[in-house]
């Protein structure tokens, strides 16, 4: 059940919700910028640093292939790390706030009934 | 080696058709079963929100790994080596945008469509109209690309040559027939099965595709005793391009000696493509609606994690398939069959079958299996696209714009079914006329529009307090128009040998992918439209923000 508009404004301006927003944004925005820059570096090297990308490392495996595979590794790692971060630092706080809104809504209803 | 080697071609053809019919029979069965479970609008649009993270992860993979990914990327790698791999990396990294910035918030704040989130704190009618337009445009471009691809593939996969008749049809009749058949089946899946039926079709298809790709990958690697370096060396040698085959630059960002301008634009095009690939995914409507099929935002997160795993592993398979095709089949043999390389994976299957599964019959069997998987792939993707666009037409345009939110659930679902029929019919008709079109251009356009029109609006909506109706309209229409106009004046439409109109020339935009210009323009228009208007609904934004972060009040 959605709460009242006033209630949502109150929650939005609460300290706890502010902390949740901060925690989340401090993770997702810098991480997004980081992986986009990391990917951009890879595309730029593919476009402009072909001699470097062509350097052979082991047998026929060159820097370009390693760099490409590293993009896979970094994608998997970031996904895993985000899931861990969200489960530990975001979900519990989000649940608290959720319960708080629900609790108060129910409490309000109870008061209504007793009066 | 000819794909349609005389003796084995009939066996292979019959087998391909039989296997494909089995797939169709199974999925139709599932669809009819799903239709009995589809009673409410939530069932039709969101599959009852009952899918698990793994199921939806598979379905996302099924929606995403199109024929373009499977046959296209394997073919690109087989012909151009490293550059095909570069393409798949963009497709994979894109999922981080969906995971970090979109999936969970969208699941919490929306109900059935992308517009639910965009219109949440805006004036409903104009924003829903805009979102509906861009949903249908993106989906139709993508749909035509898939269906034209299906038509082109059928003659190749069934090995129908230009002067040969098959069931009384010549090659071009067979193409039209395939387009109509694929279109009719996708309409049935969507109209009858809704999201529940379509999701199971995606899951079955993803399973088939992963299994097929895994088996071939193991065979290729086993052939080279699991030594990647030997495989790469052989691929480079047989490609006819030597060491350059393993380096970037054969397909994208080509350097033209003595022509600095051409080289510059070619490299800009590579950057533009990279940007559109990474930012387009999280704006594709048929992908966004998948997040609504699970019960909570946390399960939506889990389903994206599964999807990243499945799609990532799949692209690693295509690496082995592409290089394997170059090494074992050979570049010349692939281009002899199809200039674009789309038949590289099926040809590789045939070769592996001949070498390891007992000669011509084995080759025919493996070829048939992979060809049937490719058909299943196309069918599942077109169904997903049709569902997304018909949902938006019914839920956004009919129920909220025309009926102003007063349509009954039953009416809405009936309209969605009719819309699927109409959109499906339009897509069939357009695909028949568009047969000669360059398919890559349609896909590039779909991704560029998704990244330029949809993504800016979604991100602003979720994260920017000040964003308003005017900003949403400016970013959607501005991004959409920028992308479409730039493509219209690009070398893919006119002024080059491979253009849609090769004999005309009105192009002035030098790049074939508009992303590098149109995506920033989409974000810029969204900002400009916002600051030009004083409107702002603080209460609704409070509700949206609290809801998107905590799930309170989520459907």
TrEMBL record, chain A:
The keyword Transmembrane applies. The keyword Membrane applies. It comes from the Bacteria. It holds the Pfam family DUF485. It comes from Actinoplanes siamensis. The chain crosses the membrane at residues 27-49, 61-83. This is Membrane protein. The lineage of its organism: Bacteria, Bacillati, Actinomycetota, Actinomycetes, Micromonosporales. Keywords: Membrane, Transmembrane, Transmembrane helix.
UniProtKB/TrEMBL annotation, chain B:
Its main location: membrane. Keywords: Cell membrane, Membrane, Symport, Transmembrane, Transmembrane helix, Transport. One of its GO terms (molecular function) is acetate transmembrane transporter activity. It is a multi-pass membrane protein. One of its GO terms (cellular component) is plasma membrane. GO terms for biological process: plasma membrane acetate transport. The chain crosses the membrane at residues 15-35, 56-79, 85-106, 127-160, 172-192, 204-224, 270-292, 304-329, 364-388, 414-433, 439-460, 472-493, 513-532. Signal peptide: none annotated. It comes from the Bacteria. It is found in: Cell membrane. Belongs to the sodium:solute symporter (SSF) (TC 2.A.21) family. This is Cation acetate symporter. It comes from Actinoplanes siamensis.
